[in-house]
Protein 1
Amino acid sequence: MKEHKQTKKKRSVINFSEIKKRISEWIIFFERDLWRLSSKELTPRKSFLIKHLRVIVLALKGFNEDKVSMRASALTYYTLFAMVPVVALAFGIAKGFGLESYLESELQKALSNREEVFTWIMSFSKSMLETARGGMVAGVGFVVLVYAVMNVLSNIEGSFNAIWKIHKGRTLSRKFSDYFSMMFIAPFFLILSSGATVFLGTQITRISEDIQLIGFFSPVLMFLVQLVPYVLVWILFTLIYVVMPNTNVRFGGALLAGIVAGTLFQLAQWGYIYFQVGVSRYNAIYGSFAAVPLLLL
């Protein structure tokens, strides 16, 4: 019996050392052997696997070395301070396209069960828009509004340049031209991505009732309609990856990154609206302002 226990203990020690050995082998493989493999010596399938494995390893390594998490936190901080000016500018652009009421309803949906925060953001943003009309005070208000939004975009560019290893930012003239373009394009795409599904879905349902053939294909059409917001957000994120870094970015790489980031953005938005599970826990700390930190996550 005693010998049996000793044998069992010995086996457990051997297994533990085997695990350590395996871990060491995997570390050596990812740090050294993975980069020594030649694609010419591998089958097409293995070559494809090794190529994409290298991309994943480089992405994870770059995520850590470039301090992406810290930069994202810093951008969240700037976004929090620029929230009212950004919303005010978005409402100004939406009003020009006749989409002001729709944007307001979407914002209210995002801040569901948080009427105080919604009222606070709406009152301050509309007050800022009113201030930015006519007279000297309006001129100052408009400058503050534009500066706040451009400051956020400038910090976004700084983060992208650091990740791309670009040490020189845009000139002031290029900042004005490029940032103004982004200020008008981004809200437009976000508004379209939110409203396209509802609008197109309603139109297809109405037309399918009149035309029998379209009614037969309506499930396929509705599936394509569900993809519209994703496609619009993919385009927006692709433009951000192409435009924001102060360097030439390969369109294929920007498109792939835009699809991944845009999909995650849409899923996070969907999850925030439908799974606000932890809101009650934050109420004790933030009160009625609890929706704002959650909205920024």
Protein 2
Amino acid sequence: MIFLRLANAFVCALGLLAAQSQLIEGTLDREVSRDATPSWVVSNLNPADGLDAGLLPSPISPARIWRGNPFWRGSGGELTLVLVLDQSGRYSLMADLNHNGRFESEEVVALRESTPGYHDGQIIISLPRLAFVNQPVLFRILHVNTREGAPQVLHINSSGMITGTASVAGQPVRVWIDYNADRGLDPRNGLLAVDGDGDGTISARWETALANDERVVFRAGSRYVSFESFDAANRRFTLRLHPVSDYLRIETRPGVEVPDFAFIDFEGKPHRLSEYSGKHVLLNFWASWCGPCVASIPKLKKLDAEWTSRGLVILGMNYDERPEAALDAARKHELSWTNARIQEIKNLIERQFRIASWPTYILIGPDRRIVASRGFLPETDIKSALGESAH
């Protein structure tokens, strides 16, 4: 009896050691970097012409002033912002970062015209309650309100990414995690990324994933990992190793072979991708609710008319949750190419290709290997691949 208990304890210990060997510890960086794909919050600043000019830095001579305590995720609405249009027509944004009721020179950022009509400025917000040093917050004015006494609309991007490093198979692997000050760091939700090819950068096409209450498996060199947990207070994170069989993603980079898949078209007919072997196939990921998708239809029609006889097949990959909306759009715009309905390809779109922006176009060669993956219609790639130089 004692022997059996000892044997069971030994087996349990071996199981625990095996489980622990599948975990990898990593360290999170102290800086919060700005997300390359910002998510904007809109807030109003109200006219504050009666604001005591003595609260402003001395070089600034205001012509108009707006003031407010805008709310964005993690701010708690605690930060006072003042927007000033000076006598020379320049805009400055001030943030009372130390909460002393005044605006020091280091709390002022000039809003510069990045593109016509867009005035941008960035302020670094300290994060004293967390282990991270600061968070960059981007502020933008799209349209200056020139009406006297009218509020000014301010666009705020507080999207941030926490970065970190772990050693996987003896190689440093960089990771990116969506930072949300309200929910914290979540290994099952939000934007997650792993530098799969070790080049120190992240490809939005195949190294990121928008997790939705799920464990996402990434490639890290020759290994496969998922995020297990985060310890923001100590700036630590844990990865879990996986077998290659857990890696479902089709990496949308040139040279990757797209596996055969089945689908049913809008008329109810079954198909497989392999039907188009020997041809170039343009996968068009679209939806009727996507404005840019609909706007690209005339160009797709032109491509279809010009290149079908030369070996191009357009295959629509529809993402409308309501099938009738997709059918209505296809009829309205007289789509001449085959379109796959969402029911059979939803998992392919969400879990394998991991499409997160619309439209997305993936050009596949006759050998079913990816030629190009774009967020815009790859006309140049198509012409080049089918033997004609782009003009």
Protein 3
Amino acid sequence: PRINTTEHIGIEGDVTINDVWKVIRTALTRKAPGPDNISTQVLELLPISALKILTELINSSIRLTHFPAPWKRATIVTIPEPRKPQHLPGNR
């Protein structure tokens, strides 16, 4: 779906290469990779030329208010709490 361009989405100006690098560096390395299987450890090894392309891609997506379907996918795994009965109706 397209974003309503009259709504403020919290982004002032273009995303910079430094912004992208900060997000990569502060991402939790113990998190599992997403559906693309790209880990944060791999992203940290990207050369500056790849970071430039990634930054351009992000900015184009924001400008066009279009986010590719793969960017919207996630794999969610529920982990039950230990020693908590699984049959209770409050467990989701």
